[in-house]
Each structure stands twice: as C-alpha cells, then as structure tokens.
Design brief:
56 residues
Amino acid sequence: MAKQMGIAAPYLYRVLPKLIEEGKVRKDGSGWFPTDRRDSPAPPEPDAGELVLEQS
C-alpha cells in the first residue's frame, strides 16, 4: 500500500487511523485492505448551521 501511495511504509502508521475512521481501509490478520464502499459507513450528516463545500 505504501508503494502505491509513494510513501515509506512506516508513514502508514500515521495515516492508517484516519483511513480506518473514514471507512476506507480494514485490517484482516496482518494485512490492510481497501474496504468495499458498500461496507463503509455513510459520512456524517452536516449540522443544520454548518456550511458544506463540495469538492470538484
């Protein structure tokens, strides 16, 4: 995974917690795998007064 991202393997320990939180990866045994989008949690709904910017 690090090679595909173009980073050194030890840096994955910095980004994996965020990717797990976002439902983008899962751990299976000693390996990390992308999650199936159908299995990942839906993003939280914005608060009523929160401004939401769409990425293009």
